[in-house]
Specification:
single chain, about 280 residues, Muramoyl-pentapeptide Carboxypeptidase, domain 2, 4-stranded antiparallel β-sheet, globular, binds zinc ion
Length: about 280
């Protein structure tokens, strides 16, 4: 068994605190920190002003808080970080030496997932099982790294701001949005638990999750080039009536290069391409 210590650095108010969590795996393969992306490690401290995520000492994301109390704080804290590995048997998360959660992986074949043309479909009509927990797909991560490296060579900065999300994490996010915006508005941009593409491990959000991302140099380049790496803008402009979500220039979905190029050239959204609806 392997113990890995990870330091997550939080900036809390005026001071610095270092929290350490360690994770134990039920197999002996050597792990690399490069394989990791931190999802979140949330709201254990309601008074913090902002939180930064680091991988190998490099900042990969940042979230800001305005001193308000976040609901679901305990759940966020437990969800912590997720990782990529299809062969692991179980994963235990610790905080300050205390086990906060354990997730088991049985390697079972999922037969209640909905595929069309080898594409796993998740939308308002086709949910995922609550215990479907694949982590961020390694092929997706590799394609993302290639894309961000190519962008970097052009002077563009593209980074992951949200990757894999578990059912439970999505439940907290949706609940929070529901409380703030009410159901009809929340449903235009926030998926209900089980209905989020982030739970597939094949989708992620880039940079700033804001409409203004579309107008940045990065946003324009991603829109015109992401298909070369197997990605599509999953919720395109003008397709809200079909996808069920407003334009999200920051949300990419991996469908493989062949499908991505066909979808890009067709001008269709994924539902149209597959002949589906998302009521
Ligand atoms: Zn997203």
């Amino acid at each position: 068994m392997k113990d890995i210590r990870i330091g997550l650095i939080f900036l809390i108010g005026a001071g610095f605190f270092v929290l350490q969590g360690n994770i134990e795996y039920g197999y002996s393969e050597q792990l690399s920190f490069n394989e990791w992306r931190y999802e979140s490690f949330e709201a254990a401290f309601p008074h913090k002003e902002y939180e930064s995520y680091y991988v190998d000492g490099k900042r990969t994301g940042q979230k800001r808080y305005n001193g308000k109390n976040h609901e679901g704080a305990v759940s966020w804290r437990i969800e912590g970080y997720e990782r990529v590995h299809p062969n692991k048997e179980y994963e235990r998360k610790y905080l300050d030496g205390i086990k906060t959660s354990e997730t088991r992986y049985t390697g079972k074949n999922w037969n209640n997932l909905f595929f069309v043309k080898d594409i796993l479909v998740v939308n308002k009509a086709y949910p995922l099982p609550a215990d479907y927990y694949p982590g961020l797909n390694p092929d997706v991560l590799q394609a993302f790294d290639q894309m961000s490296n190519d962008a970097k060579a052009l002077g563009l900065n593209i980074y992951l701001s949200s990757g894999f999300r578990s059912y439970r994490l999505q439940a907290d996010i949706y609940k929070n949005n529901l409380n703030i915006y009410g159901q009809s508005v929340a449903d235009t941009f926030s998926a209900r638990p089980g209905y989020s593409e982030h739970q597939t491990g094949l989708a992620f959000d880039l940079n700033t999750i804001s409409d203004s991302f579309a107008k940045t140099k990065e946003g324009v380049w991603v829109k015109n080039n992401c298909h070369k790496y197997g990605f599509i803008i999953r919720y395109p402009e003008g397709k809200q009536g079909i996808t069920g979500y407003k334009y999200e220039p920051w949300h990419l979905r991996y469908v493989g290069i062949g499908n991505a190029e066909a979808i890009f050239n067709s001008g269709l959204c994924l539902e149209e391409y597959l002949g589906l609806t998302s009521p």
